[in-house]
Amino acid sequence: MTDAILITGGAGYIGSHTARRLLEDNRRVVVLDDLSTGHREVLTFFERIYGPEQFGFENVSLLNPDELAGVFDRHTFSGIIDFAAKSLVGESQEKPRFYFENNVLAFRNLVAASGDIPIVKSSTAATYGEPDSGYIPLGEGYQEHILGAGEFDQCQLMPAAVSFDELLGWYKQDIAEQSPALALGEIDIAHLKIPTNVYGITKVMDERLLVRSGRRFAALRYFNAAGADRSRLIGEDHDPETHLIPIVLQVALGQRPHITVFGDDYDTLDGTAVRDYVSVPELADAHVLCLDKLVSGAESMTYNLGSSKGFSVREIIKAVREVTGHAIPEILGERRSGDPATLIANADQIKKDLGWQVQESLLETIESAWHWHRLHPQGYLVVQEERFNPFWNRWVNVAAHRGNRPWRGETQSMDKGGDIAYEPECYLCPGNTRVTGDVNPNYEGVWSFTNDFSSLVLDAYETEQRNGPYASRTSRGVCEVVVYGPNHSQRLSTLSVNEIANVVDAWADIYARLGEKAEIAYPLIFENRGDVMGNSQPHPHGQVYAYGEIPDLIVKPQLAMFAQYKKEKGGCFVCDANDVEVDDGRRILVNEKDVVAYVPFAAQFPYDVMIMPKRHVASLLELGAEERLGLADALQCVLTGLDGLFDAPYHYTLALLQAPTDGVDYGYHMQIQITSLLRGPGLRKHVVGADIFGNLINPSDPNVTAEELRHAMAEID
Ligand code: UDP
Fold this sequence. Notes:
- With 717 residues, this protein is of the alpha/beta class.
- Among the domains are: 225-276 and 307-346 and 353-381, UDP-galactose 4-epimerase, domain 1; 392-401 and 514-716, HIT-like (HIT family, subunit A, 2-Layer Sandwich), CATH 3.30.428.10.
- It has 20 helices and 30 strands.
- The strands form 8 sheets. Strands 17-20-22-21-26-27-25-24-23 form a 9-stranded antiparallel beta sheet, with helices on both faces. It has a 7-stranded parallel beta sheet with strand order 3-2-1-4-5-6-11, sandwiched between helices. A 3-stranded mixed beta sheet has the order 12-9-14.
- It is elongated.
- The structure holds uridine-5'-diphosphate.
């Protein structure tokens, strides 16, 4: 097993994005976090998506050396990225000891516990203090330059609950006296005089401590981090929020009445302060790049992580208006103490050395932040709410935490499937005799026949009775079996896309042939696969139940929904659901020209999947060859993904829901629905109690199951 990367503070904003970046590269990650400000939810998400082989979590404080030693006993690390820190400037002025302990003592413990493992340290532009405009954009050599020019003999610390000398005294007493090698010299102290706040000073202490430790390190000085992961599943969630972009987005969401502009009398073009904003996914890239350089033997490095471009507070507000379409009321406030007029990085060095540079535009970064904020208006939370599922016309209790409950009951064994192409005992293989004595033809492609045990028949006896509240009617219809091909060892997911398209064509023909009959109001085409779904015949096949009456469970409520929705909203609820899902994006599995597939917002079972033509069509009959091929492709992607996710042939039930064939135009939009009673590999969801008598409970977050499935699908690609 390869060594892991340790990410301290990996439950926080930049840490979680960096962890995700490494995990997406199939690397092993251990997050260490005391969860004082980080989010457990993001770690649960990583655990679920990447599994224990790839991801581990240590709920440990860097202030506890014994616990920390345990982390290094349990894992072998090839590198460390350290994000664990407190970072609120105002708070640091009020609680300097708290900042000294969490940002410096904690870091010293990490350095002491980790031997000579290369370390990437998150640092900050606050180490530059309040530079004169003549030094902007700021290069990494700024401190050395001004110190060399003898410009700094006074410390710049603004009024705080501690003096500069006291801060130095803490370092001396708590660090240097125990580890004389880490004692600060004159040059270190000169650097410490530059920041204007305790937070900045603690970060300079960390940088100088690293220099003194003789350790190979990368110190990365961030300018303003913004934006969110493209998946829209992880993002920024601070409490309290102090940063400009998320605050303006909260105004756009209506969570705040206005944005207060902290001063418009700075020496800048529009009078408001100018900052350099960098997207967090790109910051994550830079960390990984630097770590890999260090691991492969590079010398220590210190880089600015900025875009080399500045935007004023007013320009940011304007950009948010553009992205969100919201007005964003603004009022003018006092300057915030300690805010420099302009901070822009000169980020040439890292570009020259490592080829890293910001690619994203400000609007793209704000867009990604906006997606995160509008889709997670309350930030991270475990979903526990009722969601309306229009496809089934019912409310679903989505209670994601229930998926983690201890389970002592049976686990489902999942048969890996066989490779025997012809099975003499199989009643569906070509040439074999069925229980009725009928002999199967030597069929080659798709073949269908009337079910030997049909639940519905055309010549059923006539009945029409009422007995108090009870009633009976003639059970009229046709049941057929549709065999997808002669090879016993295959299943829908292992057929080629062209072979699946042949099945789709056969479904269309059957729908047309049975739908034409005057006695048939609704041909339902479906497939049950696997023991869990009550199917023990592995030969690839599905079924048709062509009903004399429109069936009650799904289609009839859908028709009522279609009609009501059309009356109220003037459109088709399936088209609108597709639009909402595409716009949201978190649950999308396939989004091609003609076809969309997703885990629906109100999934009833964990791995519910809807596959639909984008065009508003009533049945397969309205689809051209290319569209049918698109549908076949989506079916293959989703089903092979599910097989991959469960590491076995998936157990599911699939239904092709098309318009009734009773001659009425319902404005129907056809759907393929796939669902399963599996709630995880080897785990079966029991439909009992509340699921039968109350509302169905989905014990998982549809965003997360969609991401699991996307991952499995990508692995197959
Ligand atoms: N800012 C503002 N109103 C707010 C929050 C921030 O005008 O509600 C200004 C702040 O004074 C600074 C800029 O926006 O000039 C960026 O502030 P932020 O806290 O996001 O980052 P900083 O540069 O302070 O690290």
